[in-house]
Design goal:
The chain is built from 17 helices and 23 strands. It has about 475 residues and is α+β, with helices and mostly antiparallel strands. The longest helix is centred in the middle third of the chain and has 15 residues.
Length: about 475
Amino acid sequence: MSSLHEECGVFGIYSSDAGLDVAAAAHYGLFALQHRGQESCGIYVSDRGVPTGYKSRGLVGDVFTRDVLAGLGGGNMAVGHVRYGTAESNRSRNAQPVHVNHSNGSLVVAHNGNITNAGELRRRYEMEGCIFHTTSDTEVIAYTVTRERLKCGSIEEAAARAMAQLEGAYSMAMMSSQKLVACRDPLGFRPLCIGTINAADGIGNSFVIASESCALDAVDARFLRDIAPGEIVIIDKDGLRCDTRHCDAKKEKRLCVFEYIYFARPDSVIDGHPVHLSRTTAGQILAMEYPVNADVVIGVPDSGLDAAIGYARQSGIPYAIGLIKNKYIGRTFIQPVQSDRADSVRIKLNPVAAVLRGKRVIVAEDSIVRGTTFVRLVKLLRDAGATQVHVMSASPPYRHPCYYGTDVKSRESLLANRHGTPEDIAAAIGADSVSYLPFGELRRLVKPGQGICTSCFTGEYPVQIPKEPVKSRFEEKLG
């Protein structure tokens, strides 16, 4: 409940079943991934190699009306995307997927993550005559792939060559005229999985690519497996095959730990581990590390609820619903502009006074990043009659900017850096106490041996970060 650059959701489907409506499937998949991005969304459908698409700012249910979906037509492939953008890049032109035409056909790309050398690549391409129409990393990816496609015989080979040039975090789905291709960066910063839908007559399969397994469930697809870090998955009329040349079993993987703490839906399974279990475990750890004499445990909807359940289960203090969420308001964590975050908090949460009045309250939340929303939250609880408010964060103190897909650019904006100790932080937000998940306990939130990225807590970055932002001429013109 704070604010973290471009956390998005991708969805792709290839159907060998002529009766399957791929546009509708992509639509349902994006609904399931809506929590990953609420700024814009888009779907492209390929009919015999010709893509038709629509994208716009807004929520999936608002953008894709019945008429818009009908206008996409039928086909055998589709790629969809939900996007959260940064404050300076929340223009409609940056909605995804990105569609480019080249001499060998067309390419549609949907991407989740952040390319740390995108500025350098963009500048080089501009010097060579390329014209960019957006400020997004995804267009840089599309140009890199299409340039390599001119030098080789297949889209999958072009993707492999592009991966050798791209640095940072990327999980993506690409659609050429004949193939659906999915790629995940060699460190696996962002999740990506694959599932299958059996044809109604039992002949042939349809394959689905998605950021989270909950999107597979939404289209009644059977989970096959997670796409491995560095792996390229190719799906066409001959079925599914894989290219693992960029997979390195010796290199520690770096899945963003915030996928377990905040980003993913609790009913998803990320890299073989249930998200719900990660969050309840965090709550249990907090209860063991920071016992508090209290009357009730509540969670901040939605991502703090599991941690609250874990804390209550471990401590024996009753769990209750103490905050009601207006489900028509987007997640404050992924509101690009600070004023938007503050405004949405005012109407997003309402306390249940009957639960809180006269009670010592423990309130669990996934994280405390900037802390702005927590000042309002603590006041809401006290105004509802809470005599004490003890805040439990299911993550360690967030102290460093993230360059791999999360919108935190400066250390100065982070609450843990503005106030040195938990006691100082508690005073700053008006709480009786603030406690954080110990950093050393993070690995208990994931399956044994799972590598995670913790750079936002430590400042130790697994991939070289940009020395300074490199603006394109197009960005400079836009200001």
